[in-house]
Structures are given as C-alpha cells and as structure tokens.
Specification:
The complex is a heterodimer of chains A (249) and B (464). Chain A is built from 10 helices and 12 strands. With 249 residues, chain A is α/β, with parallel strands linked by helices. Chain A has a single domain, classed as P-loop containing nucleotide triphosphate hydrolases (Rossmann fold, 3-Layer(aba) Sandwich), CATH 3.40.50.300. In chain A, the strands form 3 sheets. A 6-stranded mixed β-sheet of chain A has the order 6-9-10-3-11-12, sandwiched between helices. In chain A, strands 2-1-4-5 form a 4-stranded antiparallel β-sheet. Chain B starts with 8 loop residues before the first helix and ends with a helix. Chain B has 464 residues and is an alpha/beta fold. In chain B, the strands form 2 sheets. In chain B, strands 1, 4, 5, 7, 8, 10, 12, 14, 16, 18 and 20 form an 11-stranded mixed β-sheet that branches. A 10-stranded mixed β-sheet of chain B has the order 3-2-6-9-11-13-15-17-19-21, covered by helices on one side. In chain B, 20% of the residues lie in helices and 34% in strands. Chain B folds into 2 domains: 342 residues, no CATH class; 62 residues, no CATH class. Classes of the chains: A alpha/beta (249), B alpha/beta (464).
C-alpha cells in the first residue's frame, strides 16, 4: 500500500530525514519509535503533505500513485489520515459542521453521494461511542476547551468517521493518563482491519501494550536503524535508544 | 477659507436650511450651521477623520433628496404595501426614504412602542412627545461636522417612545433608502434622524439597515454584488440618538449592505442599570463611516459593542467607538472583527474614557483583523484614557492572516484549500452575527456573511 524509498526531507534548509525506507501493506500496523528530534513527526508531516517540509530526495508511492505530488486534501481523499500530536483548536467552527464537510468532500472524491443530515448524525452517534466521546462534545467548536484526552479521542473519532486506508498516528499517547490511553487504544483497535494500515509513531513502548504492532521500526537521526517485531519495542524499553544507536553504527 | 472642505455642495445647502420650526430647534440648527461652517467638513488633518477619505464625497454636487410623492395621508396602507409589510426576518419594518419615514406605507406599530414622524410632532405643540423631543433631540453630545450638518438640515425623522416598563412586541426595523424618485438625476443626500426614548425598565430591539438594493422597495438582498461597480450616487448622513432610562434595555442591530456613502453617528446615554447592546454588521460601502458614542451615566450601566466588517473591492468601512465611563460600577465590552480583501480599507478607532469618579469600572476592548490581500489596508487604534484608579481595563488589537496550523488541519481532513480558507474566514467574524438574538435576522445575516466569503456558496451547500 505504502512504499517509502530513500526519503530525504529538510525543514527550513535543515536535513531531518536522511534516507528512510519503509513498506507498509494493508492490514499491517507499524510502530515507528525514536528519541526526540529523530524525525518522527517530520515523517508524519511529509506523508500528509504539510507546507514547509521539503522532500529533497527519494519517493513515496501510495496505492501505486506518487503521494508526494498530491496536495494534503487529495491525500486525505485518497485515504491517508494524520492523527495530530497537537490537535488544533478552531474557534468558530463546530466539530460536526467541519466533519460533515470533510466526510462529504471525501465521499465526493470517491464518487459517493453526500450523507444527508440524518445519516450523518447516525454515524456520529455510532462512531463517537468507539472512543466514549460525549456526542455533545461533537457539537462544540473544534477542540476548543477540550482536555488533552478529549482532543486525542476526537482525533480517533475523526479517524473512525473518515474511514481512511492508511492512518498515521503521531504520538497519540502524548499527554494521556493511563485511563485515557486505554480508551484511545480501544478506539484504534476497533478500527483495525484487513483493509486498513496504520503507522503508529511513539516515543514510548507503553502505547504498544495496548495497540499491538505487527512491526516495530527504530528511527534515529533521520534513518530507520533497526526493524523487528513487537519484541523490539520491549527491548528498547529495557535498554533505551542509546543501545540501539550504538548497535546500528 | 475657500477650500473644498468649506466650499462644497453639502455646506452650500446650509443657505437653504429649514427654519420656522419651534424656537429651540431653530437655535439648535443655527448653532449647528455655525459649527460646520467654521470647521468645514473633516479632512485628513482632523485627527478623528485621518483615515476616512471624504475626498470623493466633497467633490459631488449633492442635492437634498426631494420629498417622496405623498401617499394617502391619514390612512394606513394595507399590510402588503411595499416597505411597510412585516419583514420576512420577523421585524416590523418602516421604510425611511430620503430621510422621511413612510408611516403611510407601514402597518400599525408593534404594541408597546409609539412610532412617530419627527416633523409631525414638531408641527403639533400639544403633542405628548413634543416636550421629550425638545428635551433630548441634539442634546446628548455636541454636534460636529457631519452630525452638525444633519442637525441643521434634517427635515423629518423618527421618534420611538417606550413608556415606563413597556416592551416592544416586535423589533422595530428602520430601512434607509434613497427617495424612490432618486434613481437618476444629480447625486442625492438624505439626513435621516432618529430619536429613541426608552423610559425606565422598557425594552426594545431596534434594527437599522442600509440594504444592498436600496432603490428597490423589496428590501435587502444577500449583498453578494461587489461594491463599486457603478459610481455611488447617494449619501445617507444619519444621526441616531438613544436615551435609556434606569434599567432600560435596548438591543441595537445595524446592517450596512448599501454600496453607497453612509455616514452615521449614534449617541447613546444610559441611566443607572441600563443595558445597551450594539451589533454592527458591515458588508459593503463606497465609504461607510459609523461613529458610536456611548455615555454610561448611571451606576451599573452596561454596554456591549460588537462589530463585524467584511470589505472587498474598494469598500471603505470605518468604525469609530467612544465609550465614556462617567459613573462607578459600569461595564463596557467591545469586540470588533474585520476581514479585508482586494483593495479594501478597514478602520477601527476605539476610545474608552474612564472619568475620575468612575471607580470599579470594567472596560474591555478588542479589535482583530484578517487581511486576505496584500493590497487591503487596515488601521486599528484602540485607545484607553483612565482617570480613575480602581478599574479593570483591557484592550488589544491584532492584524494578521489565516493561521497556517488551522489551515493544514482542515486540509489534512480532506477540505480543499479554498474551502478551508473560507471556513476559517467565516469562523473569524461569525460570532458577532451568532450573538444576534433575533433568529430570522441572524440566519439572513449569517447567509449574507457567508456569501461575502470567497467560496461561500460552495460552503453553504456542503454544510447545508
């Protein structure tokens, strides 16, 4: 589904990604772990098309297409979803209003008719349950006055509403207490499926106790230095990144 | 002095100023005439008018709007008559053509409020409103420049009176329009004048609008026509005065959608515990200048002044507020939001004065602007003058562009860039409209606001 080859990217002229290779197939969950500043979030932003992240070398092929040539909205329409590390508050825009516009923009791209108000609200009720998000919260302004946990649940709620093929979750565990982490993980697990791939970016192995990955990759200094199964995450937890770093050299 | 600010059609008209009214009014008019002859019209050297380009105005050979063809006097036209029918926005409408209220075209005023023509009251010394008119008309604050021209030259206007404890059964909606005969010929000027007397504990919602299709009696359209397509030919120079008795509440909504010249001054005096709200929505104007002056004159008086302006093309939308805290324990809140595109000009100039005795004042003032084009201009000047020491005052102004984080968030969810920009722009200004209590009017204004956004129609469709 996704093939990243020798990806180099800079931010403000400073090289951050220095040759990332990664292949993700439908149904797989890949964890990308790494210390601060290793390029984890840059990888998420490059894949979702944020301005200011300049690809200097390499390629990303998604469902047979050149992902890097697409604007962010087209990537979303083609089924790429980014769960933000820091979800943005948007005063004046209600969650429901915004999500309806997003759902129908993506449906339009797929050649499907727009959902009417009743179908849409039915879907909201159904999917908000997955992350125990109060449906009243869905009516509020996007992330305005939401707690850290509510913001992250709102991200996974949006994931469930938009039904992407590839979900990239950028440090979804950051800022969550253990209860919130369990709820968010439960929501993520509920939307796992054979057609859907996920890249779960995290600093800590803790999240991976709840969202069990098929593969774990260690990103250090802009390169994937080691890949393995979930036991690699446990090893990282025991030994820290320094050990892997020295092994890789 | 023979410069254009002193020698122009507007000032020349003072030669023909009305007289022969009651003596107090003649004296008021004489004084106003003298004031404006001496000062001339305000130019760039007049501080409060520094950013208001009146150049286009003073060059035009304005003639005062002729009286509308008299309708059947003494008889109310049927409810279906143009201009007087109950509006589709839930308000009781009164058309003010060339400064003259067309009560002949309007149905009966809502219960709880007396609506009269100023000229009629002046002509009848025994009228119960004659004394209050004499007491308050032109007395709230000294007339200057354009408001002095209005005082010297107005021929008619509207008095609204709410007796103690009265509550108007429906919002009163004054729709300002050129006299219907003024669609060709020389440029016209009108001097509408409004006096609202809201006695103790009374309650009124007042809407004043300058509709886009002002020559048509069908009232406002959605305002999606860009301003400035044809040269503006009409000036409304309006003065609205409101006197709020103790505990009175007036919700005042002002809508500017006319592509012409509109210069207005609103003066409000609030007694103890009165509450005044102003929501100004400005969507067009070759030159729209609105001055709003609030006097908090009794303990516990409050005012909320909100404004949303969306200017495109060569619109010039200019809002000035002056709030004077003259008593202790008063509260004022101001929140003006502007969106400026193309070559438009926006101005917010807000002054809060806290007088020496006005302890325990709370005053907040905020102005935020969004610039969508490099050729658009905004001047923002929030200003506090505080002579008391036990007060809470805040003020702030920002000028910026759309937030890149918000923009990316929306695009990453599948909204194309133009739509995402439209959503964020609309979100920036909509709060002012959302706060309008009158639902049909709120919905209409929300639509009008949406249609002023780039991609607004697509947005409405998508989220309908």
């Amino acid at each position: 589904m996704l093939k990243i080859e020798n990806l180099h990217a800079s931010v403000g002229g400073k090289p951050i990604l220095k040759g990332v290779d990664l292949e993700v197939n439908a149904g797989e969950v890949h964890a990308v772990m790494g210390p601060n500043g290793s390029g984890k979030s840059t990888l998420a932003y490059v894949l979702s098309g944020r301005d200011g992240y300049e690809v200097t070398k390499g390629s990303v092929t998604y469902a047979g297409k050149d992902l890097l040539a697409m604007p962010p909205e087209l990537r979303a329409a083609e089924g790429v979803f980014l769960g933000f590390q820091y979800p943005v508050a948007i005063p004046g825009v209600s969650n429901v209003y915004f999500l309806k516009a997003a759902v129908n923009a993506i449906r339009k791209h797929r050649g499907e008719p727009p959902l009417d108000a009743i179908e849409f609200l039915k879907l909201v009720r159904e999917r908000s349950k997955l992350v125990e998000l109060d449906p009243e919260l869905a009516k509020r302004q996007v992330n305005v006055g939401f707690s850290g946990g509510e913001k992250k649940r709102n991200e996974i709620f949006q994931l469930a509403m938009l039904e992407p093929k590839l979900a990239i979750l950028d440090e979804t565990d950051s800022g969550l207490d253990i209860d919130a982490l369990k709820i968010v993980s439960k929501g993520v697990n509920a939307v796992r499926g054979p057609e859907r791939a996920m890249i779960v970016i995290t600093h800590y192995q803790r999240l991976l106790d709840h969202i069990v990955p098929d593969f774990v990759h260690v990103l250090i200094d802009g390169r994937i230095v080691k890949s393995g199964d979930r036991t690699l995450a446990l090893q990282l937890e025991e030994e820290g990144y320094a050990e892997v770093r020295s092994e890789a050299v | 002095m023979a410069d254009r600010l002193h020698d122009n059609a507007l000032i020349a008209a003072l030669e023909r100023a009305p007289s022969g009214g009651p003596a107090w009014l003649d004296a008021l008019r004489d004084e106003a005439s003298r004031t404006v002859r001496e000062s001339g019209l305000p130019g760039r050297k007049t501080e409060a008018w520094r950013f208001t380009p009146v150049g286009d105005l003073v060059a035009l050979p304005f003639e005062q709007a002729p009286a509308p063809a008299p309708a059947t006097t003494g008889r109310r036209a049927p409810e279906t008559a143009p201009g007087g029918r109950p509006g589709d926005d839930g308000t009781w409408r009164l058309r003010v053509e060339g400064g003259r209220p067309r009560l002949d075209l309007a149905g009966a005023a809502p219960a709880g409020v007396v609506v009269r023509s100023i000229a009629e009251v002046l002509a009848a010394p025994d009228d119960p409103l004659a004394a209050p008119l004499r007491e308050h008309l032109g007395r709230l604050a000294p007339a200057t420049h354009f408001s002095a021209l209005n005082t010297a030259l107005f021929e008619d206007g509207v008095v609204l009176h709410l007796a103690k404890g009265a509550s108007a059964a429906a919002p009163v909606h004054l729709v300002y329009a050129p006299a219907s005969s003024a669609t060709d010929g020389p440029p016209t000027v009108a001097y509408p004048r409004v006096l609202v007397l809201a006695e103790q504990g009374s309650r009124l919602t007042l809407v004043e609008s300058f509709p886009a299709g002002s020559a048509s009696p069908d009232g406002p359209s959605c305002g999606d026509e860009p301003a400035g397509e044809s040269a503006p030919r009409h000036l409304d120079n309006l003065v609205t005065e409101l006197v709020l008795g103790p505990g009175a509440r007036v919700d005042h909504i002002r809508v500017h959608e006319a592509p012409d010249f509109v210069i207005s001054r609103t003066i409000v005096r609030e007694a103890r515990d009165a509450h005044y709200t102003s929501r100004v929505v400005s969507l067009a104007g070759a030159l729209m200048r609105a001055d709003l002056h609030v006097l908090l004159d009794g303990p516990g008086a409050e005012c909320e002044l909100d404004g949303a302006y969306v200017a495109g093309g060569r619109d010039k939308l200019d809002h000035h507020t002056l709030v004077e805290h003259r008593s202790p324990h008063c509260t004022s809140r101001q929140n003006y939001r502007g969106v400026l595109d193309d070559k438009a000009l926006g101005v917010f100039d807000g002054i809060v004065i806290v007088h020496r005795d006005a302890q325990k004042t709370e005053a907040h003032q905020e102005n935020r602007n969004l610039l969508l084009s490099a050729s658009a201009t905004v001047h923002t000047k929030p200003h506090l003058e505080i002579d008391a020491d036990d007060v809470i005052c805040t003020h702030g102004a920002t000028v910026g562009s759309l937030d890149e984080d918000q923009l990316f968030y929306l695009r990453a969810r599948g909204l194309d860039e133009a739509t995402a920009r439209a959503i964020l722009t609309y979100a920036f200004v909509r709060s002012v409209v959302d706060d309008i209590g009158l639902q049909p009017l709120r919905d209409r204004l929300a639509r009008a606001l949406l249609h002023r956004m780039p991609e607004g129609e697509a947005l409405e469709e998508m989220t309908a």
